[in-house]
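Crash report, auto-generated. Payload:
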Amino acid sequence: MDESTRRLVPLARAESLRLLGTVPFGRVVFSRQALPAITPVTHVVDAGAIVIRGPGAPPVVPLAHDRAETVVAYEADVIDPLARIGWSVVVVGAARLVTDPRLLVRYEALLPRWVAEPEDQLIRITPELVTGYRFVNDNAVDAAVDAVPT
Amino acid sequence: MDESTRRLVPLARAESLRLLGTVPFGRVVFSRQALPAITPVTHVVDAGAIVIRGPGAPPVVPLAHDRAETVVAYEADVIDPLARIGWSVVVVGAARLVTDPRLLVRYEALLPRWVAEPEDQLIRITPELVTGYRFVNDNAVDAAVDAVPT
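Recovered output after restart:
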């Protein structure tokens, strides 16, 4: 057994956001009708915020109107499930629809659609809490996990 | 542009649980101090329930005592982020600590530890709501995504 060589290493905020920027997708977490909900989406990290785009229907994150905001969590990871090494980053912050026409053009280009749905949304998450862990096995070479996009 | 050939195909409950059983890990979603929280964990599907094991500290899902239960969501997916095809399954249900000594022995064997932490927990989720989608591109051969463990 090599369990004694396994550790969780907390990551600093900057390193967590950097890792988030190295992968193209994650999962957004929110409450829907008082139940926990989660949906996989694609993302880009832009000017310190996370912009997400998900499957069009149902809406990715329920927002009552164009200027509403709601607190969500956003998680991305690169994990080798057999070796149990890799990293996971979680951001908690306010989510809002992207409505600025210039930003819409920018993010439309960076984040391709998942499906042919006109109701498709672009959502911007402002990171408030940022936490990250690296799952390390001191007996294994785990640096290579960084390079694997999923 | 091939967007017009992209579709979300809802999956039946049985097919969703079957797909969940084909992968070794996912993410558990819950509320912590009124904020959405998410942690990657390993899982097995056993007798219709999902048994999860996560990094030992902090506790994977906050449960006040050995017989407490709390509603969580559990998500697993296999997604090719570049082709934007694959599947995602979400289960919502009650989570409880596994305390039965026979089941503990069984799941200890099926789910290796992530880290050397004695406070490590095994948690059983009873699926109530089960939803799943397949992300399809009719122009692409996406059956192969089933076979990719991550």
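Post-recovery validation: Confidence is low (pLDDT under 50) at residues 142-150 of chain A.
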